[in-house]
Amino acid sequence: MGNTTTGFLAIVGRPNVGKSSLTNRLVGRKVAIVSDKPQTTRTRIMGVYTEGETQLVFLDTPGQHRSRNRLDDFMRRSIGEALSEIEGCLLVTTPDTVIHDEEKELLRRLQKDGTPTLLAINKIDTLADKSSLLACIDMWQKAFPFAGIWPISAKTGDGVPALLEQLKGYAVEGPHFFPDDAVSDQPEEILASELIREKLLHLLQQEVPHGIAVGIERYEERDTVKGDPILDIDAVIYCERDSHKGIIIGKRGSMLRAVGVAARTELEQLLGIRVNLQCFVKVKEDWRNRPSQLSQFGYRL
Ligand SMILES: Nc1nc2c(ncn2[C@@H]2O[C@H](COP(=O)(O)OP(=O)(O)OP(=O)(O)O)[C@@H](O)[C@H]2O)c(=O)[nH]1
Ligand SMILES: [Mg+2]
Q1: Domains of the chain (ranges, CATH numbers)
Q2: How far from 72 is each of 22, 211, 239, CA to CA, in Å?
Q3: Is the whole-model pTM more than 0.90?
Q4: Ligand 2 centroid to residue 63 C-alpha, Å
Q5: Cα dihedral: 139, 142, 144, 150 (round 10)
Q6: Residue in 17, 20, 21, 121 to alter for ligand 1 test, most ligand atoms within 8 A of Cβ
Q7: In the structure, which protein residues have their CB atom closer than 6 angstroms to any atom of ligand 1?
Q8: End-to-end Cα spacing for the chain
Q9: Mean pLDDT of all residues in the chain?
Q10: 226 C-alpha to center of ligand 2: Å?
Q11: What pLDDT is recorded for position 1?
């Protein structure tokens, strides 16, 4: 056996630019939930890629944004934590004509730490005219000494293999941090609660899903009378207001049912086992500003 190498690489950027989509694409499996609403990712999630002697651990992070409550504070601290003790960093952006303040803030930190940093310009599949990319690349090149700039699409996979090749170069000699068949540091229960949150983000309007947290009260495998394994999951969806509770449940329970079916279907696919999912809804006023609640929902460092 040769020498193993491992690299910790943070994936940072503004909300909604496609950090989690890219993490999933790099790992080759869904490890982080994705939605078209900003601030989908709330915690630092490790996605693991192992090929032969090389292991890369991607640290997907919440989008860099200004704080309005204690959950936001926690999310910002998660980014800071991910940026310490890494071999390299990948800043993800979109083909814009400006560099946003949040991006400048991240680059200042990376420069201070001297972290080797690559840029991924994501969502190039949305560009009708690819020539506009040249001006974008030029703007970024002048702004920061990136170790590489890669126009990519996390959606189609365009450009991702070449980016991955460069990222492998940041792995350093040492034992693998995770077993070679691992894809994430997230326990299955967390994946289940996150998938429920993802479906809520997809199905609900702007303000409601941002005030939602999902707790798993039961997670037990058993054999059915026929002898097939089945996973019983009881989940509680916490929201901030009575009016939100009504929206989440929907007319005669239709919304809650749709969320449950979508989450169960995907969970069954990912885990390869039949799932019996029961969802309940409870109100926890202002939980995003209550430290004890935040830590109960797993939002603690
Ligand atoms: N067209 C297109 N859409 C993309 C691409 N990558 C991501 N998206 C979409 O962009 C939206 C945001 O994707 P996420 O991966 O959740 O973005 P994020 O940066 O992790 O967002 P936060 O966790 O909120 O910071 C979703 O609707 C994705 O489907 C891409 O390459 N092309
Ligand atoms: Mg994300």
Answers
A1: 5-173 (3.40.50.300), 188-296 (3.30.300.20)
A2: 22, 12, 16
A3: yes
A4: 7
A5: 50
A6: 21
A7: 15-21, 34-36, 38-41, 62-63, 122-123, 125-126, 153-155
A8: 37
A9: 96
A10: 40
A11: 55
